[in-house]
Structures are given as C-alpha cells and as structure tokens.
Design brief:
This protein is mostly helical. It has one domain. It is 53% helix and 8% strand. The chain has helices at residues 2-31, 41-54, 57-63, 100-121, 128-140, 154-163, and strands at 74-77, 80-85, 94-98. A three-stranded antiparallel sheet has the order 1-2-3. Helix 1 (2-31) runs antiparallel to helix 4. It is globular, with a radius of gyration of 17 Å. The relative contact order is 0.18.
C-alpha cells in the first residue's frame, strides 16, 4: 500500500494544479454576485458555503466513474474543485469542496507537505484512513469562517486571468452530466 501511495502523490499534485486552473476559468463568473451584497467577509463566506451546498454535487459525483477505488479523483464544478474521497482513505465516500483561491494561497505549503508525505510513505505502517483522520483533526478544529483575508476583487482576478493562457480542459476530463447540473 505505501508504495502505491508514493506513486500516486505526484500525479495527484499535477492533477490538482490542472483542476485549479480549470476551476479558475469559471470561479469569478459564478461567485461575483455573492461578493457584492454581504456586509462582511464572514457573511460572504457563509453565503458562498450555503450556495455551494445547494449545488447538485450528487449529479456530478454520479457522473464520475467509480472504477478507481484507490484514487483521489478531482473534479471541477461551479468554479470549485471537488476531491472525491473513498475507501481506503475514508470509511465511506465523501466529497471535499475547495475554492481555487484556497489552493493558490496554500500552493507552496501543500507542495512541501506532500513531498514530506511522499518521503514518509515508503516506511509508514499507518493505514491511509488513519493518516487522513490525523490530517483532518487540525482543520476541523479551526473556526469557520476563517479570519478575514484580503481577497482579490473581481477586477483584480480578471486582470490575473487575462495575463495567463486560458485553461483548455482535456476532452477525457469532461463528465457527461446531460442537462444543466445545478
């Protein structure tokens, strides 16, 4: 198992970067209206959380092939990144939803910790499910919404996305959702 984990991590990080770029293409167009009216960053976070939970994630998950039991499939939907967690990483299937700006802020720390995890995986006797439980203890103990951060304005984000090449999603990464998913 540990050998498999050490081989999976580099491709996961590459896929995560691709998912971040894909989600950024849609992010500001879907969240712009929520950032205009809230009275505080905390209220904006709660509004965005309610909106995300109201989206049809089950339809998106249903379109995701279930043939890779030991993988961590990534998907992008409504400008966000979903990571499907399944055994052996969790007791049952779950979906973790992230804002692409979170991954942009955490990019260097994530690379550092993933490199450390890869180095430790070869000698670890800890089951992946137990390792995940340990990793989740810290963020689940933090207050929500987090302390306010200076987020880029839609104009600043627009300038950023105009400077980089548009992300073109590979055809094999498009899920067959049928009609509108949300």
């Amino acid at each position: 198992m540990s050998r498999y984990r050490s081989k999976m991590l580099p491709s996961f990080l590459t896929n995560l970067e691709q998912a971040r770029l894909d989600a950024e293409e849609e992010y500001w167009s879907v969240v712009r209206h929520m950032m205009v009216t809230p009275s505080s960053p905390a209220e904006a976070a709660r509004t965005l959380e309610r909106w995300l939970l109201a989206q049809n994630w089950s339809k998106v998950l249903g379109a995701l092939p279930d043939d890779a039991a030991h993988s961590l499939p990534l998907l992008t939907y409504v400008g966000h990144i979903g990571i499907r967690l399944a055994p052996p990483f969790t007791l049952k299937r779950a979906l973790a939803i992230f804002d692409p700006l979170q991954f942009q802020r955490l990019h260097l720390a994530l690379l550092h910790h993933c490199t450390m995890a890869q180095q430790q995986a070869a000698s670890s006797t800890v089951h992946p499910r137990d390792a995940l439980a340990l990793a989740l203890r810290h963020p689940t103990g933090l207050p929500w919404p987090p302390a306010p951060r200076a987020e880029p304005s839609p104009d600043e984000a627009g300038r950023y996305t105009q400077r980089r090449s548009p992300y073109i999603r590979a055809e094999e990464n498009a899920l067959a959702l049928g009609t509108a998913a949300s």
